[in-house]
Amino acid sequence: MVDNNCKIMVTGATGQIGSELVLELRSKYGNDNIIAVGHRTQPEEDLLNSGPFEFADTTNKQALSDIIDKYNIKVIYHLASLLSAVGENKPDLLWDINMIGLKNVLDLARDKHMAQVFWPSSIAAFGPTTPKDNTPNETIMRPNTIYGVSKVAGELLCEYYHHKYGLDVRSLRYPGIISSETLPGGGTTDYAVDIFYQAIEKQKYISFVSESTTLPMMYMPDCIKATIELMLADKNNLKHQCFNVTAMSFSVSELAKEIKKHIPDFVCDYKPDYRQTIADTWPKSIDDGLARQEWGWQPSFDLSKTVKYMLEKIDLKLSKEKEATCQK
Prior knowledge:
There is one protein chain. The protein folds into two domains: 7-176 and 220-244, NAD(P)-binding Rossmann-like Domain (Rossmann fold); 178-216 and 248-284 and 300-327, UDP-galactose 4-epimerase, domain 1. 46% of the residues lie in helices and 16% in strands. The protein is built from twelve helices and 13 strands. The strands form three sheets. Strands 1, 2, 3, 4, 5, 6, 7 and 11 form an eight-stranded parallel beta sheet that branches. Helix 1 (16-29) links the parallel strand 1 (7-11) and strand 2. It is globular, with a radius of gyration of 19 Å.
């Protein structure tokens, strides 16, 4: 990372990760130094009120170029993406957003001599022939979803720009991300967020994947921490551009059991749909040893701590929303 006065652009700023990353970066580097870029017409007030916000489609290269020039951007966190479950129903749209958008960012970063680019990969880059337990950083990657294909292609494209043009581009393979602040956004691991809302409001949840489905996960504060720490890491210590990163792995039934400790009447039923076939191709656990070795990654949240914080934060959030509705 360059100095604290560096202008940083975050695309996908209204998404699950982007919305929280923008606020954390603004807290760390100053509100005016973090330019949020989103495609939605009505971003959250926190994003609009805390610093610069620009509306842009990342498939529009000229629009991105204009924003970069306007603010003299030196670092890009490119989080704009269409997720796995939505992507299976809209493969052409996913390819445009995930691949054309990424290439636009890499081209502009190269041509405008950017200091750094961050781009998130995913455990979706792995596939049914990948070892499922303790999946290593370098292994077989033959996904059978369009989202996974875009992530493998994206990893290779980022690596190409690093070796060909010397671009400092860094990536994390995110596991499922659990957040109390933003609603699910069309991913296969959405159940690990929605279950908390349903547990609090209805004491019941119907999971769209089976009770034994086990996937690597991470609570959002750890996700944000890992992202920023990777970008702050001394590049002389990095032998890789893309890293596995995780905090825990659990099955849906294990998650439900942990929630039940706090909400005794909670019941979880299971009705797997098409998302089950996607989840079945992903690892049950991943080895993030290289991230720990090369830049000191260490998660802060396990399952029990995550469940406790999620229930507390969502309960407070829903109470405030109900109070605001009653006052209207």
